[in-house]
Write a structure and sequence with these properties.
The complex is a heterotrimer of chains A (351), B (257) and C (79).
Chain A (H helix, E strand, L loop, with lengths): L2 E5 H11 L4 E4 L6 H10 L6 E4 L3 H13 L4 E5 L1 H16 L5 E6 L15 H5 L10 E3 L4 H18 L3 E6 H5 L1 E5 L26 E2 L6 H21 L3 E4 L6 E4 L2 H16 L4 E6 L1 E3 L3 H10 L2 E6 L5 H9 L7 E3 L8 H10 L4
Helix pairs in contact in A: 1-2, 1-6, 3-4, 9-12, 10-11
Chain B lengths: L11 E5 L18 H15 L5 E5 L7 H4 L3 E4 L5 H11 L4 E7 H7 L1 H10 L4 E6 L2 E2 L5 E2 L18 H4 L5 H6 L6 E6 L3 H19 L5 E6 L3 H4 L3 H15 L3 E5 L3
Parallel strand pairs in B: 2-3, 2-4, 4-5, 5-9, 8-9
Antiparallel strand pairs in B: 6-7, 8-10
Helix pairs in contact in B: 1-8, 4-5
Chain C lengths: L3 E5 L9 H5 L5 E7 L5 E5 L10 H5 L5 E6 L9
Antiparallel strand pairs in C: 1-4, 2-3
Classes of the chains: A alpha/beta (351), B alpha/beta (257), C alpha+beta (79).
């Protein structure tokens, strides 16, 4: 294993290639430009297909085609581009096609700006397109974790036949950190996909659909999806806890904010405040249970986000009144400093 | 379907039957709809080239939404207009596949114009069958991007007024201006002679793909008797008397090398 | 014996009449019999005129027509 200094965007690209990525389709948008550039440079050299599409809509539908052919495939974008991809993501989910979608979030709504933000949480975790579906949503807070979660995203997508999303932000994408890259996946270890469209030679035709005109038939297709989602909720919830054992206040934050919140916890502890952190790694499935358990003994659960309070809704669903659930957020791409968050923490502790 | 129980007298040889690439499923089209003929010509091309085992079809949104039932080959459903992007993904992921999309005028020439033009411009090596019946069939006969000036539809009840809604898109003429496409042609299936010509064109469009020549598109003028509100035979006269006047038949681009 | 023979799959036929219109010899017509979908199915009204040219089948949108033709080298007596 080699330790190299990489930007988040580049580490995500390299990890995807090492995960066995065969087809990458993109459309340029800031702040994930380095990811596109890295893929353009590296993927063709390593036996993959790089294609810049005419739009985000086309790119996600190319992913849909490549996923149907049975290869590991990915697209990446940032918030406005991800909005355009929602139609295709709904079809991918409905057709049970595995793929990885990277969203390096920026400020919104509309054109917004290119600063880091977390305003796409609802879109990512509640099903951004039409219909009853979920994506597996992984939220790295450091560059090494981003690389690790990209590889996991491909495995989980294939295992459950569900699209998986890496939800980062502009700060993670631009940040440089030393990364220990995992070795490339052995292609033979990627499970077979007997449902893939490989030509019907010697077998019955495979058909990939998100469509059934009969309500009973479509209900069955939906039940398969929902059964899959329940299994993912049982098996794949991931989170990190820091100093929660004796905490009188626990911060909940993910991604870039999760990293900043970790610093806040350290500084609070230095000042004698018993602060802790729960950092969801999977935003869907959300760590409801661990939060509920914390809420049984921690009086205050403070949600900190780069949004007006989107994950906050899930935190309150988990806590269900067992603890106080204040919120601290920033908008428009403004990133709060640890000092600002610490003063917010102090408002909620007795000492 | 019903078994044909007619006794064939000795000395007779079958000269026409269902292509092997077609499944037994009955078509879900209205009586007299040209989709059925075009669909059969595709199956005949698949049979003739012996590619059933490596062909993947892309079923569109619209009257051909059940296309996957009609063939004995792999199939995928595409979102409205996105077939050429899906085809790009499939073919780039596995160049050994023979990929074709089957799209109507609303699908290909309105909501999917960008996907079509750019796939053609890239010279993607797949085959597009473009059915131009000048109307949205499945949704009830609305104006299509190919609806003729003056043509009555449910959304142009007084006839298409070009001052309000402009002129029909001549997609094949547009695509023929691009450098990359291998073959762009417009055909019709309103009589047996033209069916034969359309058959040859579709065969060529698939053969081009086998030979790696790149993007081939066969536009086929067709009827929609239900939404034309005409008996099927009369609807065929519409093709010759009206549609072909605006959309002349013939090859628009043939790149032979 | 006529040169040609047309077999129409009654259940596939939707009675659209394109085959009847296309036949150059007036072989086909509506049978006045209805299939299980309620369509008036086409049939050979004048089988003796059939040459087995298959133009009807070329025009059948439901691929419901099979066409048979007497083998040209077949001696008449053998039929």
């Amino acid at each position: 294993m080699s330790r190299v200094l990489m930007r988040g965007n580049e580490a995500i690209a390299e990890a995807a290639i090492r995960a066995g990525l065969k087809c990458y389709f993109c459309y340029p948008i800031t702040p994930q430009g380095e990811l596109v550039e890295y893929m353009a440079r590296e993927l063709p050299k390593r036996g993959g297909v790089f294609l810049q599409a005419e739009s985000e809509v086309a790119a996600i539908n190319m992913v849909y085609g490549a996923a149907a052919a049975g290869v590991r495939t990915m697209t990446s974008s940032s918030s406005p581009g991800i909005s355009l991809k929602q139609e295709g993501i709904s079809y991918l989910a409905g057709s049970r096609l595995p793929c990885v979608i990277v969203n390096m979030m920026r400020g919104g709504p509309g054109l917004g700006n290119i600063a880091p933000a977390q305003g796409d949480y609802f879109q990512a975790t509640k099903g951004g397109g039409h219909g009853d579906y979920r994506l597996i949503v992984l939220a790295p807070s450091t560059v090494p974790e981003a690389a690790q979660l990209v590889m996991l995203a491909f495995d989980l997508a294939d295992k459950y036949r569900v699209p998986a999303m890496i939800l980062g932000d502009g700060m993670l994408g631009q940040m440089m950190e030393p990364v220990e890259l995992p070795p490339p996946v052995d292609p033979s270890s990627i499970p077979e996909k007997p449902w893939a469209l490989t030509g019907a030679e010697g077998r019955e035709p495979n058909v990939i659909l998100s469509f059934d005109l009969s309500p009973q038939g479509l209900r069955e297709m939906n039940r398969v999806l929902q059964d899959t989602y329940r299994e993912i909720e049982r098996s794949e919830v991931r989170w990190e806890e820091v100093e929660t054992a004796d905490a009188e206040i626990v911060l909940v934050a993910y991604g870039t904010m999760g990293r900043i919140a970790k610093t806040v916890v350290e500084r609070a502890r230095e000042e004698g405040i018993k602060a802790g952190l729960l950092r969801p790694i999977t935003l869907w499935p959300f760590p409801y249970e661990p939060l509920r358990e914390l809420a049984e003994r921690v009086p205050t659960i403070l949600t900190v986000e780069l949004s007006a309070g989107q994950m906050w809704e899930d935190v309150r669903l988990a806590v269900e009144g067992r603890a106080k659930t204040p919120f601290y957020g920033e908008l428009g791409g403004v990133v709060p400093t640890p000092r600002e968050i610490l003063s917010e923490v102090k408002k909620h502790v007795s000492s | 379907m019903s078994q044909v129980s007619v006794e064939i007298p000795p000395g007779y040889q079958k000269v026409f039957g269902r292509p092997r690439a077609l499944s037994d499923a009955p078509y879900t089209y209205c009586p007299g709809c040209h989709h059925g003929i075009i669909g059969r010509l595709i199956a005949e091309a698949i049979d003739e080239l012996g590619i059933q085992g490596r062909t993947v079809g892309i079923a569109p949104v619209g009257c051909s939404v059940f296309l996957y039932r009609f063939y004995r080959c792999d199939f995928i459903q595409a979102a409205h207009g996105r077939a050429c992007a899906v085809a790009t993904g499939l073919k780039r992921a596995n160049p050994d596949l023979i990929v074709f999309s089957y799209q109507g005028d609303g699908d290909l020439a309105a909501i999917g114009t960008a996907e079509t033009v750019h796939a053609a411009a890239r010279g993607e090596n797949f085959t597009v069958i473009f059915v131009n019946n000048q109307i949205y069939g499945m949704t009830g006969g609305e104006m299509a991007p190919t609806t003729l000036p003056g043509q009555r539809t449910v959304t142009t009840p007084q006839g298409r007024d070009v001052a309000l809604t402009g002129y029909p898109l001549k997609i094949s003429e547009m695509l023929a201006q691009l450098d990359a496409p291998a073959y762009i042609t417009r055909q019709s299936v309103h009589d047996a002679r033209h069916v034969q010509l359309a058959r040859k064109a579709i065969l060529k469009a698939f053969r081009n793909q086998l030979e790696g020549k790149g993007f081939s598109l066969v536009e086929v003028l067709a009827t929609c008797p239900t939404n034309f509100r005409m008996p099927p035979v009369e609807a065929q006269k519409w093709v010759t008397e009206k549609a072909m006047q605006f959309f002349p038949l013939g090859d628009l681009k043939v790149r032979d090398e | 014996m006529p040169k040609g023979l047309v077999v129409i799959d009654r259940e596939r036929c939707k009675g659209c009449g394109l085959c009847i219109d296309a036949c150059p010899f007036g072989v086909l017509g509506f049978s006045g019999e209805y299939n299980s979908s309620g369509y008036n199915v086409a049939t050979m009204l004048h089988p003796e005129k059939c040459t087995g040219c298959a133009i009807c089948a070329q025009m059948c949108p439901d691929v419901a027509i099979e066409v048979y033709r007497q083998q040209p080298d077949q001696p008449k007596e053998a039929v």
